[in-house]
Amino acid sequence: MEDPLARGAHLLFRIENVPFTRWHTKARVIMGSATFFDAFDALSLAFAMPVLVGLWHLSAKEIGVLIAAGYLGQLIGALVFGWCAEHFGRVRSAAVAVGLMSVMGVACAFTGNFHMLFLARFVQGIGVGGEVPVAAAYISELSQAHGRGRFFVLYELIFPLGLLGAAQAGAFVVPRFGWECMFLVGAIPGLLVALLIARLPESPRWLVGKNRCDEAERIIEGIEASTPRRDLDAVRDRSEIEARLASLRQGARRHGKATWKELFSPVYRGRTLGVWVLWAAAYFVANGINNWLPSLYKTVYHLPLQESLRLASMSNVLSVLAVLGCAFLIDRVGRRRWAMACFLISGALLLGLGALATGSPWSLMVLGSSAYAVMGTVTVMLYLYTPEIYPTRMRAIGTGVATSWLRAASAAAPAIVGIVLTGYGIGAVFLMFALATMVGLGAASRMIETTNRALEEISP
Predict the structure, then answer these.
(1) CA angle in degrees (0–180, nearest 5) for 344-41-38
(2) Which of 40, 258, 259, 298 is the most exposed place for a label (fewest CB within 10 A)?
(3) Model confidence over 112-134: pLDDT tens digits?
(4) What confidence score (pLDDT) does residue 343 get?
């Protein structure tokens, strides 16, 4: 009888041997559509908020609390669905998360007061928070080690495109059709996407980790049937192939049931704590800025509604361009150096904005949007980096727990902005964000580099 470990290693080897094909494209497009609407739903409230401020007579603190509601739900969703993805599979968990997110998006459109919208956004956040880390683990496990950075960041470009879509839709839809339609535009297509995700093949790496090798082999046969090409056909040195198989076999021995405690084992403790700080710092800044921009233009600078939404949407245009540049440079520059440079540049821009924010709204437009765009590349890069530092058996749990810190930071930031804005003014808000970038810079300096490393199945 064939050794299960040897068989698992051979199946992983076969995944590595197949180049990127239309099979991968289909999976990336469908899962990417979910990520697009995840981002859309996450930002939809920010562009409805300038209307709700006047309609419901909301204070700055109430604005912050309402924005925070979705992120509090996301904190729970990241933890719950990260656990579900390890036990029940990536595809099933992602489909349920997207379905919940979309159903509650429809519910948001029919709320009529602050308290009902707070509750609807909280429950919707559970689905939003669950989809992204599970999707990140799934896409990471479909990609090869070589060139994974470019492959994965191009996939993650879908998230800022979703934010851009929400921004452009908000600038057009809200003034013409009302704030309720903003939620429906993102929610209704999401219901169809949930059905499409449910039909995707499961991650073969996850199946191998669960010793379901027959199911994994059928999926891998489908990947192989999509192209006659093999990456190792040109390898002449047989010892190189044998070395890869031996490494994969060694990694297969480590497959087993993932536990939360393993995140704090001596091998992973430093990685875990470091990446938590990175997630919290990056998203405290990015989501704190992005969610408040429309309301700042309207309430602090007293711009008309349509102009406020239009200026706020420009930050997401810059973010998409920055992430596109990141996709083509990240493997060359490296994860660590990229993160350090972005925290440093964003911090400098925010310090400048803290000194100039009381002047023209154009200082906010130029410096604030640029700082957000630069930090946006870090938020995307972390979805690439975090799955790389954990092996398959604990990848979804590790990523899910790490992203729970982004949810906590994203919930805290809007609420804190409301308090600081009321008590100390807009300049203090951006000085606070600059301080957060310095915390992130310290954590980035301690990152382990993963560029061009082999698959994490073969590392501790």
Answers:
(1) 70
(2) 259
(3) 899 999 999 999 999 988 887 78
(4) 96
Q: What is the pLDDT of residues 398-433, one digit of tens each?
A: 877 887 788 788 888 888 888 888 888 888 999 999
Burial of 217: CB neighbours in 10 Å, binned 0-12, 13-18, 19+: middle
Stretches where the chain sits below pLDDT 70 are 1-5, 143-156, 231-260, 357-359, 392, 396, 450-460
How many angstroms separate the CA atoms of 437 and 282, rounded? 7
Type of residue found at 60: A
Q: Which residues contact residue 3 at a Cβ distance below 8 angstroms, ignoring those fewer than 6 apart? A: none
Distance CA(36)–CA(42), nearest Å, equals 10
Calpha distance 167→155 (Å, rounded): 20
pTM: 0.70
CA-to-CA distance for 67 and 188, rounded, in angstroms?
A: 21
Phi then psi for residue 441, to 5 deg, are -60, -40
Per-residue HEC secondary structure of the chain comes to CCCHHHHHHHHHHHHHHCCCCHHHHHHHHHHHHHHHHHHHHHHHHHHHHHHHHHHHCCCHHHHHHHHHHHHHHHHHHHHHHHHHHHHHCHHHHHHHHHHHHHHHHHHHHCCCCHHHHHHHHHHHHHHHHHHHHHHHHHHHHHCCCCCHHHHHHHHHCHHHHHHHHHHHHHHHHHHHHCHHHHHHHHHHHHHHHHHHHHCCCCCHHHHHHCCCHHHHHHHHHHHHHCCCCCCCCCCCCHHHHHHHHHHHHHHHHCCCCCCHHHHHCCCCHHHHHHHHHHHHHHHHHHHHHHHHHHHHHHHCCCCCHHHHHHHHHHHHHHHHHHHHHHHHHHHHHCHHHHHHHHHHHHHHHHHHHHHHCCCCHHHHHHHHHHHHHHHHHHHHHHHHHHHHCCCHHHHHHHHHHHHHHHHHHHHHHHHHHHHHHHHHCHHHHHHHHHHHHHHHHHHHCCCCCCCCCCCHHHCC
